Amino acid sequence: MRTILVPVDFTATTENAVRFAAEWAAQYDYRHIILLKTSKESEFDYLHIAEGHAFVNEENVNSLLERTQLLLNKLSSIITEKSAHLKVSTAVSDWTITKSINDLLKDQPSVELIILGSDDQASSSESFVSENIISIARTSPVRTLIVPNGYRYNIVKNILIPCDVNSITKLDRLFHHKSIIQHQDIHLMFLNIHTREKAAINNEKEKELQEYIHQYLTEIPSSIHYSYDENIINGILNFASSNETDLIIALPGRHSFLYYMASRSISEGIYQNMNQPVLILK
């Protein structure tokens, strides 16, 4: 049973991710959504500090458990109202969020996708899940879809795929995700960002990229674009905002959001992206 995992907290950011997950499941034929809530984000809600000692306040613990159950019931209802055919399961863990996710993935091999809500400038409160996006995406063995809080679901028609003209074999990751890229009315936009002004694209590499796409993705409408920007992330986001884009797919390699965020500022990669969901392939 194809399954989506959505880690949640008490914010509107993860509620929006759950709504998105319900829509995504309906479009791409998922049958099961698991909602995961960890308690680590709220441990200080039920710890009482007195005279240098910490002990559990039973009343606060019970209150947290009750709030958690109410939250999971509410989010489950959002999904079932969208589609009565979707199975919804819930899980609560006392471990850290990355350990909780990876333990659950071991127990639930049917999970193919993790959907994470990401805070944006309009977010009224900070999401615990959003704070841990990078560690989750880096350690997860399955693909991860990051959804900005301000994004509202649209049918995916135009997919932007930043790629490095010198590493086109990274495109083979796309072949494992044909349920998305072969969907009806999909158009793929391949984008190479060069960071040196007036730098010439190697003609042989450009031709090699064209031939590779034509050979392996010939049945899918696509276009290849080249752009200059000293900052790769800015170049990608500027192109996306200027060209109708419903989804950005991050490939492994130099143009990957994940690679860039691991070596630069997280805010450049995630919080600047207010408009499109980003799918990180594995």
CATH superfamily caption of the largest domain:
HUPs
Instruction: Provide the low-confidence segments as ranges.
Output: 43-53
**What shape does the CA trace take?**
elongated
Class from helix and strand fractions = alpha/beta
CATH topology grouping of the largest domain? Rossmann fold
What is the helix/strand order? EHEEEHEHEHHEEHEHEHEHHE
**Average pLDDT level:** 82
- Name of the top-level CATH class of the largest domain: Alpha Beta
Question: In a nutshell, what does this entry contain?
Answer:
This protein has 282 residues and is an alpha/beta fold. Helices cover 38% and strands 24% of the residues.
Keywords summarizing the entry:
282 residues; Rossmann fold; elongated; alpha/beta; 2 domains
Question: Can you describe this structure?
Answer:
With about 280 residues, this protein is α/β, with parallel strands linked by helices. It folds into 2 domains: about 5-150, HUPs (Rossmann fold), CATH 3.40.50.620; about 160-280, HUPs (Rossmann fold). About 40% of the residues lie in helices and about 25% in strands. The protein has helices at about 10-30, 60-80, 95-105, 130, 135-140, 180, 205-215, 230-240, 255-265, 265-270, and strands at about 5-10, 30-40, 45-50, 55, 85-95, 110-120, 145-150, 160, 185-195, 220-230, 245-250, 280. The chain has a 10-stranded mixed beta sheet with strand order 5-2-1-6-7-12-11-8-9-10, with helices on both faces. Helix 1 runs parallel beside helix 2 (about 60-80).
